Amino acid sequence: MVVLDAGFDSQEMLELLEESSVKYVVKHNVRRTNPIERAKIAKEHGRLIKKEGYTEKYRGSFLHSSGRRLVFEVVLKYADRRGQLFIVPKVTIFSVWTNIEAPEEEILKAYKRGGTSEQYHSEVKTEIGIERFPSGKFLTNHLILILAMLVYNVLRFIGNDLANRRLFGLRKATRRRLRTVIQGLMYMAGRIVTHSRQVVLKLKAHKDWYYAFCRLYSLCCA
To answer: 0.85 cut: is pTM over it?
Structure first.
């Protein structure tokens, strides 16, 4: 399956994918889309999946005039946060082209998973710092990439352990970025002190991060 963003939304690209007989999910470029007309289409061809206050969310699909299937998710807002009504509803459109016969929810999730993988790539390049390899020799860069993979997996393991914990200043989430793990645990101030024939590690951190560090330490020593 090929997943592409809105930069590849063109007649030529869609025809090429169809000639190649591959399954595709391509984000629809809504720059030239009339939001009012798309809101009407959402109510005609979609179903109301969420209604909260002055906000409605519709999801569905229909056959475009080009003969292709267009899966959409449209959010209609009739008022702002203070309850002031809009003269014209505010319309937010998210839609994709696809040739896959599957429920709309699965199609949209397939595209969003591609965006999640891009976030992982960004973490490897920027937060670990290997956007550019240091050497002109392939074997050296190969070694650097292996070490970076080891570091990434360790940090990801720690992030998964911290995912469901509401630490100081953090909300409950499904995953933690590497930057959060590095700033919260790797940059934690500490000092090794020898006293009464014992080696003690003294840490200076908020109690939430302190308990998280102690939990990870106990897991590593178990």
So the answer is: no
